[in-house]
Amino acid sequence: MSEIHSIHIDGEWRAAQSGQTREILDPADATTLAVVAEGGVPDTDAAVAAARRAFDEGEWPRTPVAERAALLRRVADLLQRDREEIGLAESRDAGKTWEEGRVDVDDVTAAFRYFADLVAGESGGRVVDAGDADVHSVVVHEPVGVCAMITPWNYPLLQASWKIAPALAAGDTFVIKPSEITPMTTVHLVKLLAEAGLPAGAANLVTGAGDPVGARLSEHPDVDLVSFTGGLLSGTKVARAAADGVKKVALELGGKNPNVVFADACATDEGFDTAVDQALNAAFIHSGQVCSAGARLIVEESVRERFVSEVAARAQRIRLGRGTEEGVECGPLVSAQQLAKTEAYVASALDEGAVLRSGGERPAPSDVRPAEGYFYSPTVLDNCHRRMKVIREETFGPILTVETFRTEDEAVALANDTEYGLAGGVFSADTARARRVAARLRHGTVWINDFHPYLPQAEWGGFGKSGVGRELGPHGLAEYRETKHVYENLRPAPVRWFSG
């Protein structure tokens, strides 16, 4: 299999300066999908230098906003042109189903179009009333500069778009480092940016490991902003590295997300079916490898046994397999490492007293094809409590834990009893109660009688250790800008503050 020159610097595709490469594995069967360049510090420095030149001397930051918006729309059109190809690549690279890959492409397209429309509709700034007819005062927004972007392995293309689209809309240049295990669709996206007419040097890509590439980007003196999506441990390292340069930092560090189900949501057969279906959707989409996964089911005690029994029964019927196969509902975990972590979390939960209601093991070879992949059965763990490791930590696997409550106050306390605060759900037939509970939850996104949908025009991010800053929405664009106040005296005259 030939090597893909996956490092893109100043408009050129290159091999790593060291000549090193990395095999990208298909998680469905552990075979090699591609061989890509394994970048290092020299490649990273060259990419940052190209982005710096493009920002300081190039045309993109000075391109009129209407032209920037037009380019983003061209990228959106190209994404739809290549929808099947990119969706397949995302499926094979990350292990998700092909249909999930197609949906990701549609969501990425929507993000590019949203930010194009957002900046295209802007005026020349916000006029500030100074209370003086002889003063013209305006607040304007300018690009922040060179942006370093570090993206995760679970939604490679989507997370790249949440950073690239607003950065380009703002007039920034960037260097992006995708996860070393799922880089393929980011490579494709950078090719589309060039095809759409983005000037050389505005978009740069370095494939390689977090250390050294991500570490160097975080500390580099010529980087103005670091945007990172990933785990808490890595995120804190990024923040420390960026601190010495007093860079802007945006961090999305995952969550331990509650899904609160009140008994009144299950009062009818339709309500019960919906709440059970959504609990499965919350926990097991993409094998639970989702930062907003509803991995903590918090259900009212009076319906607990009926509800958990049905969730466990349906979890056992989820069809596992290669994401491109017809009828497959859930693919493998992304790597052998992630599979081992999932097994360790389940083992620790059982040691601490959890009751296994479904799953808890790798599927039998006869139950899944191909049998060599990193598959793990959707797992439901009952009788869980806050002291358990599986409750406190983000598992990022197909694990659903069950806790119970009796009162509304107890439900809120359980849902908020986490260091994270990314997302949560509330299911109730009582609209007033649902909205009341949603208002009390300390999470950046709260769904009522639903789980997982997001809108590009609505901000995404979390409270607590789920991160700093927001992506998407107007605030997502603001992350990639600096705000400047221009105060103009229309009739200058001496102030005479000093007598001399």
From TrEMBL:
This is Betaine-aldehyde dehydrogenase. It comes from Streptomyces nanshensis. Residues 13-486 form the Aldehyde dehydrogenase domain. Pathway: Amine and polyamine biosynthesis; betaine biosynthesis via choline pathway; betaine from betaine aldehyde: step 1/1. Belongs to the aldehyde dehydrogenase family. GO terms for molecular function: oxidoreductase activity, acting on the aldehyde or oxo group of donors, NAD or NADP as acceptor. Keywords: NAD, Oxidoreductase. The lineage of its organism: Bacteria, Bacillati, Actinomycetota, Actinomycetes, Kitasatosporales. It comes from the Bacteria. The keyword Translocase does not apply. The active site is at 252.
